[in-house]
Amino acid sequence: MFETYIKDYNEAVFEIDKELALEVVETAIQNGVTPEQVVFNIIIPSIEEMMAVIAENADTNLAQHFMTAQIAAEITEKMLAKFTTPPEVVGRIIIGTAYGDLHSLGKRIVMGCLKSMMVEVVDLGVNIKAEDFVDAAVAQDAQVIAISSMMVHTATGEDGSIKVRALLKERNLENKIKLVVGGAPYRFDHELYTKVGADKWAADGVTAAKIIKQLILEVKAS
Amino acid sequence: MSVRLALDITGVRVRAACGGIGTCGACTIKTVKGSFTPLTLAEWQKIPETEREDGDRLACQLYLKSDSEIFLHNPAPTSNWKSFDLQHWPDYHYPNFVFKNTFYAIAVDLGTTHIRLSFWDRNQQKRIACRHGNNPQVALGEDVLTRLDVQKQRGSDLQSLTQIVRDTIIEGVKDILARDIGEIKSILAKVGVVNIVGNTAMLALLSGQDGSQLYDPENWENHISCLPIDLQAWKQSWRMPNAEINIQAPLAGFIGSDILADLIAIDITQHSKPIMLADFGTNTEIALWDGNQIWLTSVPGGPAFEGVGLQNGLSADTGAIKAVSLKNNIFLLETIGEERAKGFCASGFVDAIALLRTNGEIKLSGRFSEPNSEGILLDNNNPYTTIKARDIDAFQRAKAATGAAMQQLLVLADISIHNLSELWICGAFGQHLNLHNAQTTGLIPSMDCSRIKLFGNAALSGCEKMVLSPNANKITDELRQRVHVVNLSHYPEYDDCFINHLRLKPFIGDE
C-alpha cells in the first residue's frame, strides 16, 4: 500500500500536477500514514529521484524543476503542522538573491528542497545588500548564507558575494557562518565560486540542500 | 502590387534608382512565361526594341496577371534591408501641416534583433517607403546584457556599438532614398526630424552611453535619460544638418519607449473600457488600461518568442515555418516564401505545440507522452522540423512569465479577463499568430477572438504618429503621466502565479 502512494506521488510530481500530488498525500494520511512518514519516506526520496532524473537528462526541463520543489515545500509545510512532536531542525540559513539581481526562482527551488530536509530558511528576498545578509545571519543565529545570482555581473560584482566574504572576515565570523552560492554563472564556470569567496556551490536544488546541511553540521560541530 | 514592390519584400530585389516611376531603367528584368500587363510608355522609351522583343520589362511598371516566371539577370546586391507589407496599416491624416524646407521625417523602431524605419513627406502626409533589417549588434551578443558588457570594453571608438547601430540606421535610410526617391544628399538636408523609439538598453547604446546605469537596480523604475552626448557630430555624420534627432526617452530602466509608441498607435487612453496590450519579444511588455491609468510591466520572453534560440528557431524570414495544421494525422507546414522549411518562427512553433498537445503527443506538463530524447519530427524528411524537450520548456517558461504578468496586472487593477474589451498583440510575433492555438497552450487568455487584435508593427506606427501629429508632444507627455510602472519582483505572489502558468493548458483567469 505504502509503495503505491510513493508511486502515485512520484507520478503526480513528474507531471507537475500539484492538485493530484496533494490528493495522494491526503488519501495516504486518511489511511493511517503519519505526516512524518509522508515527509521522510515519500517527499524527500521523491525530490532526490526527481533531481537525479533531471540531472541525467541533457534536455533539462526547468518548468518541472520549479514545480517539483514548489510542491515538495508546500506539502512539507502542511505536514509539519501535523507532526506529533515538533520536527528536529537541522539548522538555519539566510537566503536571498545577490545585489542587483531580481531572479528569484532559482532561490525558490533551493528553499523548497531545504524546507523538506528540515532546514529553517530565512528568505530576505531579492536584490539584497551584502551588509543585510551578514546582519541577518548574525541576528538570526544562522550557520549559512546562501546567495543566488542569475547574471554574471551580479555573481562577480563587488557588492555581491565578494563583499559578504570581506564582511565575514572583517567581523571574524568565518568559522561561524559559511557562504554558499548558486545560479547560472556558476554552472558555466565550476571554479567561479572560489573567485567570489564562497565556501561551496551546487548545480541543483537537492545538491544545494545536501551541501548546506553538511555545512550546518560542520559549523555546529566546531 | 508591381513586380518590383513584390520583390522588395523578399530577399531578392531588383536594382532601382528612381523611386519606381520608370525613368532610370535599373530594374530591367526578363519575362519568361506567364501573362503580364501591357508595356507602359516609360518601358517603350527606356527599353530598346530588340530587348523588348526578348521579353525585357521594367519591374516597377510590370504587374502579373497569372502565375509567371521572370528572370533577374542583374539583381541588386544582397542587402540587410527589405520593404514590408503595409496592407493593414492605419492611415493618418493630420490637417494643415506645412513645413518649408524640412518636410521629410524619419521614424525608427530600434529593436534588440530588428530595426524598422519609415520615411515620410510631412507636407504631403505620405509615407515614401519603409524598411526592416537586422540589428548588426546581434553578432556581438544576442541579449542586452552581453551587449552592454561589449560596449563597456570597447569604449567610444569606431567599433563601438553606438557607431555600429548608427551606421546601420543611416544605411537603411539611404536604401530608401536611393531606391525610392533617386537622390540622397539633397534629401538628407531636408530631413526635419528623426524620431527613434526602442528598449532602454538599445537607446542608451545609441545615444553613446555605456548603459552602466542600467546595471543599478535603483534605476529600474526610474526614468533613464538617453540624450545623445554628441548630437552635432551625429547630425553631421548623417548629413542631416537641419534634423532634430529625438531619442524618445524610455519609461523606466526596464521599459523602453517602444511600448509607449504601441500605446500611442492604438490610442489606448481614448478607450472607455479596459484594454490590455502585450508586445511579445526577447522582453515582453504588458500594459493594462483601466480607464484612468496604465499599469505597465515587462517580463523576460527569452528566445522562444523571437524564434531564435530554439533548436530549430528562426526569425520570421524566408523558409521559416509560420503555420502548422494537422490533417489525417499528418502535419502540414506553411513556410514564409513557400520554401522548404528551415525551422520555426514563433507562430509556427506555437501551432506545433498546440497541435502536439491536442493529439496527445505532449502532456500538460510539457513532457513527451512517450520517452523521446531525439525530439518530435513534424516532417520525417526534414531534420529542421524537430522539436526538442528543451524547446518546449523554453516556451513554457516564456508563456508562464507572460501569463502570470497579465494576471498580476489584472489583480492590481481589479479587472477580470471577462471585462477586457480588447487584447492587442503587438510585435512581429503576433503577425502570423493563430489565436485558437495560442489559447490552447495558455499563451494568451481564453477570451472571444473577436476581441483580440493583432498589430505587427505597432511601435513603428506609434513612432510615425509622434512625428506627424501636431499634438504629439502633448499626447506623449499625457501618456507618460498616466503610466504606472510595476516591478513584478516586488510581488512574491507573482512567483506562485508563474508556477501555476507553466502547464500547457488554457489561461482562463480568475484562478
SSE layout and pairing:
The complex is a heterodimer of chains A (222) and B (511).
Chain A: H1 2-14, H2 18-30, H3 35-56, H4 62-80, E1 91-97, H5 105-116, E2 119-123, H6 130-139, E3 144-148, H7 152-156, H8 161-170, E4 178-182, H9 184-188, H10 192-195, E5 200-201, H11 205-221
Parallel strand pairs in A: 1-2, 1-3, 3-4, 4-5
Chain B: H1 3-8, E1 28-33, H2 41-46, H3 49-53, E2 56-58, E3 69-71, E4 104-110, E5 114-121, E6 126-134, H4 144-154, H5 161-181, H6 185-188, E7 191-198, H7 200-207, H8 231-237, E8 244-247, H9 258-265, E9 275-279, E10 283-289, E11 294-300, E12 320-327, E13 330-335, E14 343-344, H10 346-358, E15 376-377, E16 386-387, H11 389-413, E17 422-426, H12 435-440, E18 452-455, H13 458-468, H14 472-482, E19 483-485, H15 492-500
Parallel strand pairs in B: 4-7, 7-8, 9-17, 11-19, 12-14, 17-18
Antiparallel strand pairs in B: 1-2, 1-3, 4-5, 5-6, 9-10, 10-11, 12-13, 15-16
Helix pairs in contact in B: 9-13, 11-15
Sheet of most strands of chain B: 6 strands, mixed
- Our count of domains of chain A comes out at 2
Outline of chain A: globular
Which strand order spans the largest sheet of chain B, edge to edge or round the barrel?
A: 18-17-9-10-11-19
Helix content of chain B: 25-40%
- Work out the largest interface and the residue count of each chain: A-B, 27 and 29 residues
Overall pLDDT score of chain B: 88
Sheet with most strands of chain A: 5 strands, parallel
Unreliable stretches of chain A: none
Level-2 CATH architecture of the largest domain in chain A: 3-Layer(aba) Sandwich
| First-to-last CA distance of chain A | 43 Å
Structural class of chain A: alpha/beta
CATH topology of the largest domain in chain A: Rossmann fold
